[in-house]
Amino acid sequence: MNFKEFQNQSRLYVIGALETEELEEFEKARKKFGKKAEDYIGECYGLHEAFALSLRPAKSSDAIKDRLMTMVRARKEA
Amino acid sequence: MRITKSRTRPFSVTPQLEPGAPSDLELMKAIQAEDPDALSQLYDRYNGILKALILRVIHNEAEADDLLQEIFMEIWNQAKNFSSQKGKPLGWMVTLARRRAIDGLRKKQAYARAEERLQNETEQQPDAWVHNSTEEEIVLSDTRSLIRKVISGLPPAQQEAIDLAFFRGMSQREIAAKTNTPLGTVKTRLELGLKKIYDGLKELKGEL
Which helix (H) or strand (E) segment is B33 a member of? Predict the structure, then answer.
């Protein structure tokens, strides 16, 4: 696998769309390309952010935040 | 919420903040130091985005609220595992939320029910990439519209393949079966579509 092919596969990898048999080859190439590969995969995770930001924010109830913060403060004090 | 919209600033995938507002990274560092107020601010900033993502996966308002709470609790508990060298806080949170939402969907064996709801919603709302609109939502609209412009430039078949992979957690084989399309075609659609989105976003913001 050359680096261009690795880039293609990386974009599929970050969204979990690589098939099992492709994953094995991908991991080999990932090891071969080292830091360059890790940097590129890191960039590809930006796709997650973009997909989430493409959605209209949805409203959640105030009670959710109240419950969350109560749990967090209780855990901190424990 | 401290997120503001601006037409004059250069495009960034990350929403713009008001001057003086702590950055996401500063908030994450404060959460790592166990500051609950920092989590509260991060919640105010991103609960709408994360809930939209969860809803897109599980299509159930009550379950989405429960999961949202669990995810922010996990953000609090797992903050020490966040490293800015591996990416931005929002990317980390979205990755975590998506994984939890897809896991939740599978664990509850809700595929069939979600399928039915998705089918109904798709029939009611042809623009399948956008769901769950809220009346009050105005902020983030510039960022969203720019990203959506990139996505909507894709052929519908590519959009559908990416949608099923990202928001439903489907493998290529599952997408092929669901869309009655050859596996090779699904792979090509995903590859081409993701490359176009990646390149499009890079053009918009200089770097992804």
Answer: none
Report field, pTM of the whole predicted structure over 0.90? no
Nearest neighbour of B43 by CB, restricted to A18, A51, A65: A65
From A42, A48, A60, residue closest to B47, measured CB to CB:
A60
A16–B169 C-beta distance less than 8 A: yes
State the CATH class of domain B153-208: mainly alpha
> Closest-CA residue in chain A for B161?
A17
Q: How many Cβ atoms sit within 10 Å of the Cβ of residue B142? A: 17
| Nearest C-alpha in A relative to B57 | A52
Identify the residue among A13, A15, A54 best suited for mutation to test binding to B, counting B beta carbons within 10 A and taking the highest. Answer: A54
What pLDDT shows up at residue B111? 58
Cα–Cα dist B190/B27, whole Å: 35
Tokens 């050859």 label which residue? B182
Q: Which residue of A has its CA nearest to B32?
A: A76
CATH hierarchy code of domain B1-133: 1.10.1740.10
Calculate the CA A54 to chain-centre distance: 16
Those residues with Cβ within 8 angstroms of residue B126's Cβ, 6 or more apart along the chain or in another chain: none
DSSP letters, A1-47, are: --HHHHHHHHHHHHTT---HHHHHHHHHHHHHHHHHHHHHHHHHTHH
For A17-71, the pLDDT digits (tens) are: 999 999 999 999 999 999 999 999 988 988 998 999 899 899 888 899 999 999 9
